[in-house]
């Protein structure tokens, strides 16, 4: 028989408070008065705008996609241009071109400098000059396809291939989607274009020893060590990635940082030992791509390569980071689910995994933009 006292246990104060708050906020009478009372009105408007952005955010992302894929941003960079010129250049009717221009103006991608004279807006100027973000916007067409029916995606429990898993080289290979080499090349090019955001956050947050050696594990075409190498010209640099990736990175990376400073190590970080002899090993946007068992295997592999005093520097978007919760759990939670591998983890979860892998202690290194990446350093 069930314990009656357990069944009738009084809810905690927090549960009661949340229930009461939600009942008040859901009241149409409260909403009416909140929209009219000074001081409360601005809060109510902000919350209403946030909900509206949640409601129609998918259309905002598609306006971004249209502006990038059509070449509109590059055209506006040469402006001012008229709607008729835009229509001719991107193969739209003038009415459709004007509809797109007004939509981009609403997102500050475009600005009408004069009657029918269109130029880049402030956000548009930033985006047009940033090929990395444009590459990400193009890439997200795959996520949009997978999220057409999000409940169906979740119910499939990552047991079937998706558009993202077929594209993403490592997860795609697990599903037998394609030859790994070709898929890896395309994915690495995307990461090289977008990884500079993370690199800049890490360089701004973590002080590398000037004469130390750094090995970037799973570093793709080497954008991370390229930027670290530029900031620390005395550092010895290493790149460890799949043979086809490491080989493709070798020559352009050597030209950038200097062949005498660089070693490219071909290998698979699940199957081969991590190269030894480095003071710091970096793991940039890698751990969250993998489920817990392979992620632990990777951490143990890295720990085995480090001498006493060596460090692991991990940087990636994380879950439950104040101010970046939506990026960590809403975006990457569903992105990695669709990809078929990995999950966003909290700093506490990652630190626990690091200690279980044999690291002695860990510390979180605050970054200026945790929506891009957070950092954890683990000591061997």
Describe the 3D structure:
By secondary structure, this protein is of the alpha/beta class. It is built from 19 helices and 9 strands. The strands form 2 sheets. It has a 7-stranded mixed sheet with strand order 5-4-3-6-7-9-8, with helices on both faces. α6 packs across α7 and α14 runs parallel beside α15. It is globular. The termini are far apart.
**Which percent bin holds the helix content?**
55-70%
Order of helices and strands: HHHHHHHEEHHHHHHHEHEHEEHEHHEE
Q: Approximately what portion of the residues adopt beta-strand conformation?
A: 5-15%
Label the structural class.
Answer: alpha/beta
State the end-to-end distance: 52 Å
Q: What strand line-up does the widest sheet have?
A: 5-4-3-6-7-9-8
How would you characterize the largest beta sheet?
7 strands, mixed
Which overall shape is indicated by the principal axes computed on the Cα atoms?
Answer: globular
Low-confidence stretches: 171-182
Quick overview:
This protein is of the alpha/beta class and 380 residues long. It contains 19 helices and nine strands. The longest helix has 30 residues, at 40-69.
Main attributes?
380 residues, alpha/beta, 7-stranded mixed β-sheet, 19 helices, 55% helix
